[in-house]
Design brief:
Elements (H helix, E strand, L loop, with lengths): L1 E5 L2 H17 L4 E5 L6 H14 L6 E5 L1 E3 L10 H8 L11 E2 L8 H14 L5 E4 L21 E4 L2 H7 L12 E4 L2 H5 L3 E6 L5 H9 L17 E6 L11
Parallel strand pairs: 1-10, 2-3, 2-6, 3-5, 6-9, 9-10
Antiparallel strand pairs: 4-8, 7-8
The structure holds fructose -6-phosphate.
Length: 245
């Protein structure tokens, strides 16, 4: 894993945007895997700013999001559909029909899970997947204990994850209990992975990722088996590991 150490959240976002924009500018058809949450917000802002200033076009880009809550409508401000439209898609020139998220309101969830993985495969696989990391090491919504060979599936969210995400909802009770997420193997099939990590609340997770063993108890540890992972982490996230870098 290649680690790029940056000062703070702003620099992490800027560096990540540079990596993505560089690839997008090459102009080849490209499948970009995206995440939600607090971590990639600054990245999306930087992509929007670049699009407005420099006209970088996303007409040839198709996106696949990692996950979606079960039971939230698209127009619910807490749905990841809404988050992506509001944080990125509405502000760049990507055609709407080239932006995919798992459907958290599907009639048949097994079918939806299979369909999502099939779709990614049929369109050529993910070229670059952006990831954040949960304090418990989750990637996507793959909580500790998720088999490494898992494909897209339905998960029951851990209480710690619901609590971490409650900041976006009125009350903890409003946070959905289930989500649909790309599986670990779906993520590992990406040709390249860009993991963004910022803040001291992630320092423990970074320490486990860099120095712990590869184990399903810490889902992100699987990334050590991938041949093309870049981590962009800020000083606070690396505070527990700086000495040994
Ligand atoms: C969201 C996702 C999650 C988040 C993780 C960290 O699409 O995949 O794994 O990346 O929960 O969330 P933040 O960035 O809010 O700390």
């Amino acid at each position: 894993m290649n680690i790029i150490q940056v000062t703070d959240y702003k620099e992490m976002s800027q560096k990540a945007a540079e990596v993505i924009i560089h690839k997008v500018k090459q102009g080849n058809r490209m499948n970009l895997g995206l995440a939600t949450g607090g971590t990639p917000k600054g990245l999306y802002e930087a992509m929007i700013e670049d699009h407005q200033k420099n006209g970088t076009s996303y007409q040839h880009v198709t996106t696949f999001n990692l996950d979606e809550y079960i039971g939230l409508k698209e127009q619910d401000p807490n749905s990841y559909y809404y988050y992506m439209a509001d944080s990125l898609f509405n502000h760049i020139d990507i055609p709407k029909f080239q932006t995919y998220l798992p459907n958290g309101l599907a009639d048949d969830y097994n079918h939806e899970c299979e369909h999502y993985d099939r779709l990614i495969k049929a369109l050529g696989g993910i070229d670059l997947q952006v990831l954040g990391i949960g304090q418990n090491g989750h990637i996507g919504f793959n909580e500790p204990g998720t088999p490494f060979q898992s494909s897209t599936h339905i998960v029951t969210l851990e209480e710690s994850t619901r609590e971490a995400n409650a900041r976006y909802f009125n009350t903890l009770d409003d946070v959905p209990t289930h989500a649909i997420t790309m599986g670990i193997s779906s993520i590992m099939n990406s040709k390249e992975i860009l993991l963004l990590v910022s803040g001291e609340e992630k320092a423990d997770a970074m320490q486990k990722l860099l120095h712990g063993e590869i184990s399903e108890d810490f889902p992100a540890s699987v990334l050590k088996r991938h041949s093309h992972v870049t981590i962009i982490a800020d000083q606070k996230a690396l505070s527990g590991v700086l000495v040994s870098l």
